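Re: that backbone. Tokens:
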């Protein structure tokens, strides 16, 4: 008997964009866990790394995410506010406030470990024109 599990690690990105405190867009999308993320998960489980997920990154790129991606275009990062483990998933909560990424046309997201390794990549179909009156609150979820 051969037992297989083809599900692997899956990612989801959920966020709401606000303008002047009022929601203007809500998004729930799947995202790609890149090779670096898969490798880091193996390193964490084996004790070969202590560089946990600490940041979410925002970029301006327009290319389709690939397993070999390692960086976002025009990368800017903020710290993850907290994380919650629930069964077979971990949720990373984050908040892009009024003071960060202003003037940026955000079109991509990613999770980053403390050493700068990119674990995931999500590319939006359209941009978020980030200005001081725009905030974004969200969750990045990895399910095993």
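Recovered sequence:
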């Amino acid at each position: 008997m051969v037992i297989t599990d083809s599900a692997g690690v899956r990612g989801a990105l959920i966020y709401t964009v606000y303008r002047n405190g009022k929601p203007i867009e809500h998004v729930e999308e799947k995202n790609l866990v890149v090779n670096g993320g898969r490798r880091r998960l193996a390193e964490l489980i084996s004790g070969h790394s202590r560089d946990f997920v600490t940041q979410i990154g925002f970029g301006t790129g327009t290319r389709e995410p690939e397993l070999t991606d390692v960086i976002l275009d025009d990368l800017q990062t903020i710290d993850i506010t907290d994380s919650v483990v629930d069964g077979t998933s971990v949720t990373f909560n984050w908040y892009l406030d009024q003071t960060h990424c202003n003037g940026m046309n955000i079109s991509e997201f990613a999770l980053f470990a403390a050493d700068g390794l990119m674990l995931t990549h999500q590319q939006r179909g359209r941009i978020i024109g980030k200005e001081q009156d725009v905030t974004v609150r969200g969750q990045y979820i990895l399910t095993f």
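Helices lie at 35-46. The chain has a mean pLDDT of 94.
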